[in-house]
Amino acid sequence: MKQFDLAPARHPAPASLEIIPVAEMTETTRAIRLTPEFDVETLGTALDHLDLIIVSFPIFRDGRGFTQARALREYYGFAGEIRAEGHLIPDQAQFLRTCGVDCVLLEDDADTTPWLKALSLFPVTYQTRLGLR
Amino acid sequence: MNAPVGLYQYQTADREFLASRIAEFEGQVQRRLSGDLTEDEFKPLRLMNGLYLQLHAYMLRVAIPYGVLDSRQMRKLAHIARRYDRDYGHFTTRQNIQFNWIKLEETPEILRQLADVDMHAIQTSGNCIRNVTCDQFAGAAADELMDPRVHAEILRQWSTLHPEFTFLPRKFKIAISGSPHDRVAARFHDIGILARPGENGPLFRIFVGGGLGRTPLVGHELFDSVPEADLLMTLEAALRVYNAYGRRDNIYKARIKILVQALGIDGYRKAVEHELSLMNPEHYRLDPETVAAIKARFAAPDLTASPDAESRLKADRQNDIAFDRWVRSNTHPHFAPGRIAVTVSIKPAGGIPGDATSDQLDRLADLADQFSFGELRITHLQNVVLAHVAQDRLLKLWQALNAIGLGDANHELIGDIVACPGLDYCALANARSIPIAQKLSARFGDNALQEEIGKLRINISGCINACGHHHVGHIGLLGVDKRGEEFFQITLGGRDDALSRTGDILGAALPEDDMVDAIARIVDRYLSVREKGEQFLDTLTRLGDAPFKEAAYETV
Amino acid sequence: MKRAIRIGAGEALVLTANRLLDGLIVWRDANGSWQRSIAHAAILSPEEYESALDAATKSAQNDGVVGVYEVVVRPGAIAAPVSVRERIRAFGPTVHPQFATELNA
């Protein structure tokens, strides 16, 4: 697998971190993988010790990861790395970035050209024009 | 600016956005053809650009935001029907237009043509926030409290390619009205908004969790008085709860109404309030300057009319009984003296509800230029509105409409049938809706008879997904499949106004070829038992459905 | 994927799909080509159709078609689908006789 950066990571996580499913995290865990139905509010102060949170997409049509990422950034001020993995398509690149995701995990042979292209397609969004965020 | 019409006038940034969107779609088509995208991956992407694969071909649904368009846009739709389709278009119950015989390979070109006149097909389908619908008499009706179009446009912009809400559990439909007479079926939408002026700016009453389909439910009031500044923040919170907790395991239980039902309106409201407590209002505030800037892109027509306009209309009505009847059924009072709002019926006797030929579309554009400042609206009953007609020119307009076969006096009468495309076009349908609509509208074609029968809405859906809104028809018909044959179930008493309720099933489904006679027997029974001044719903309320049940099943 | 299909006495199966580029309905003939008219469709017995469906589904991308599936028909000079839905697909919308599918095409 390879990592494709959507934006410069706010605080890039060290490469060697062991990733623990959120249900099994302990006080020493620094990197977790969320399940789509997980309520990120329940992480509470554990967030302070995390360097990496992975939001997962069982299928690209399941948009819960967008809400999780955005809540982590906006409600709880998470400043570490957020990575997206699972079934994602390049057409989602900008949405992921806007919701606070730093990078996506792609197959080694995945073509990154459409991902790059997608990131530059819409320089101005309607939400920004309305003064949101 | 173009003609002084009541829709948002595009600027450079909007046009650049559309160009990017078309480039994106063209790339997606290429990737689909090369096999980089599977059909499963491509399908949601094409749907979010309005492109379905239906029974016979691709179908393209073009957005008409809040139902308003100008004459050059209408001419472009005529051109698309003529050049890329089979010479007609179909107005939908969500104020859009769809073309039934589109080719995928020509779609990027069609989208470029649409963009030439500031139109698109964005989010007319897919599990995202759909094109926002609005009161068809917005900015014209005498009974209006507040023109909802500026906020409808704000909602359009806010929901367009929303980064968080483009992959929702299911589709999401929003309607907004500024009239105390809810003309948008606010209580039957995922979110329905009733706007009114307050002391310190507009206030919004928000309903949530209404809908038809498999599980018809009347929406609940979420908040009574949301101030303008908090409108988008409130909607974001409402959508966020839905995106996080709406069901994704079963598409028939994935709409927000099921979530609201499961949590109860109080539980759902609590969840929304919790979101709101976590949100930073500064990030979501809708500033008055932003609203003013968008409002400034709506032109206001000069609505002064000649001082004798009203008396001349009065004289014209006295001279022509048929015209007088049409004025009674197909016009709505305008707030400006000497003006009147006109509903052009796209329901000629024996016709296909909502279908218009390219030539009719072109002529409607001409008539809009001549009579209503080049502006047209599409209604959720699949008709067309010319909102600002001078009363002294109304007779001329009616004559011109008659010349193109669109002069029927049947708005909100029995001939004004709403029908989904049904099995003739739709990949999901169980039964054909259009042939029954045609037979019924031919049977009750006489305009004088229709007026005699009075307000009576027939809605026909070809399957349980209820695109023909049969649940809210005064008489509703639902097509069901019995061993490959078409049957229809009758419901009575539905309505989508301030007294919204869904109709009650009358009894066992009847075969397709019995249907028209059964409805005719129900109508005959109503005419024989009604009391003076009663409409169909009044009689039904007074007597219950027993007499109609007896009539419907008389020969069975 | 095996679906439960009910086939009555004297009935058989044909394969159908939509063309990717223009969306039009097509029927699979005996050579594995996709034709506009059901008149050219290969009539398959319940025993044969599954392997034909597998092959057609596998080559759908190369053949430029989407949504391959089977339709129950009554064989004849022109195969007639059993359900109203498939008859409308085969012969055209009932409300627009002028758009009827050309069966000799």
TrEMBL record, chain A:
It comes from Asaia siamensis. It comes from the Bacteria. This is Oxidoreductase. Pfam families: DUF934. InterPro entries: UCP030820 (IPR008318).
TrEMBL record, chain B:
Residues 125-276, 416-552 form the Nitrite/sulphite reductase 4Fe-4S domain. Keywords: 4Fe-4S, Heme, Iron, Iron-sulfur, Metal-binding, Oxidoreductase. The keyword Heme applies. InterPro entries: NIR_SIR_4Fe-4S, NiRdtase/SiRdtase_haem-b_fer, Nit/Sulf_reduc_fer-like_dom_sf, NO2/SO3_Rdtase_4Fe4S_dom, NO2/SO3_Rdtase_4Fe4S_sf. It holds the Pfam family NIR_SIR. Residues 58-116, 352-403 form the Nitrite/Sulfite reductase ferredoxin-like domain. This is Sulfite reductase.
Automatic annotation (TrEMBL), chain C:
It holds the Pfam family DUF2849. It comes from the Bacteria. This is DUF2849 domain-containing protein.
